[in-house]
Amino acid sequence: MARSVPPGPPAPRTRHVTSNLAVEVDEAAGTAESRCYVTVFQALPEFPLQAVASGRCRDRFERRDAGWRFVERWVSTDFLGDASHHLRGRGTGSGRS
Q1: pLDDT tens digit sequence for 13-33
Q2: 68 CA to centre of own chain
Q3: Which of 18, 35, 42, 90 is the most exposed place for a label (fewest CB within 10 A)?
């Protein structure tokens, strides 16, 4: 599953933790790619601390006149726990899409 998160207020009491970041830069071409794992944790008074999602991110960058810029972001969700509280207030219902 790949999707983008709609703009809006941040999800309540969450932390997106990235790990195993790897970056490859091609200076001659003016491009770069990065990849990492991401785990999303959440805790609310009625929802104990737990991982609600885990997956992988891959980004592509290009060097332009103003510096390095994001060109593409790819996100894949490998595991999805109880995300029913994660996107609350964003009009997405359960938070699953």
Answers
A1: 888 999 999 999 999 999 999
A2: 20
A3: 18
